UniProtKB/TrEMBL annotation:
Protein name: NGCA protein
InterPro entries in the cross-refs: Ig-like_dom, Ig-like_dom_sf, Ig-like_fold
PROSITE patterns noted in UniProt: IG_LIKE
Region (Disordered) residue spans: 1-70
Chain intervals with Basic and acidic residues compositional bias: 61-70
Gene for this chain: Ngca
Biased composition (Low complexity): 1-16
Ig-like domain segment(s): 7-70
Amino acid sequence: SSSSSSPSSSSFSARSQVWVSPSSSRAKKGERVSFRCLSTIDPSLSPPLGGGIRWFRHGKPLRDSPDSDK
């Protein structure tokens, strides 16, 4: 009889994953837009990734506004 080890479900619980991705939005320059997503982040990641998700557009990071609820 061969034995194979499989990872426990708890070993996967801390991995980062986006459950609900933000949808596209169009806006004129200077207009505000909101993007919503649902995710979990692996707490073992070092900042800045461990502190949240960073979004990029055309390779450049998007900035949070002061009233962002992150």
